[in-house]
Amino acid sequence: MSDEVAIRLPNATDAKALLALLERLQQESDTFSLADADDPISAAQEADQLEQIKESPVHLLLVACLGDQLLGVLSISPTPQGNVGELGIAVEKKYWHLGIGTALVDEALYWADTASDLQAIGLIVQTRNVPAMKLYEKMGFARTQTPPETVTDDDGEHVQAVEMVYQLN
């Protein structure tokens, strides 16, 4: 196994490992949740989705891996505005503070700027997730004028969150 973390597009053959990673990430973090967690999909369905995402100018999915082991994921999905993508990112806790999140976001912003049809990348981040907020600010995201909102985490706790946006050229 290589000691270097790679950032890459997932392949259809990664579907089972990606679903397992998403399950681990959801269990270990109360700031990460899946929009369709109550409607699980099969590895075959995930493989089909991975192939479709590769062809999209408004969707992106990246994985961070150490050898064959997936340890982080980043997605950009279009919002109802159509020209704004929503960023989501998660890295397994044992790999936090090693620059993996920065590498994922950096690669995603490069894609958004050079290969996407998007004009901006936005996200909602819980204010208690200070490391994530610092990462986004370091990468050029700015808080919007939208007032903070209350979101419900996976434990049912109501927490404050803010909207941030990265304008593309």
TrEMBL record:
Domain N-acetyltransferase: 5-169
Pfam families hit by this protein: Acetyltransf_1 (PF00583)
Keywords: Acyltransferase, Transferase
Primary enzyme class: transferase
InterPro entries per record: Acyl_CoA_acyltransferase, GNAT_dom
E.C. code: 2.3.-.-
GO molecular function, one term: acyltransferase activity
Name by which UniProt lists this protein: GNAT family N-acetyltransferase
Organism this protein belongs to: Levilactobacillus fuyuanensis
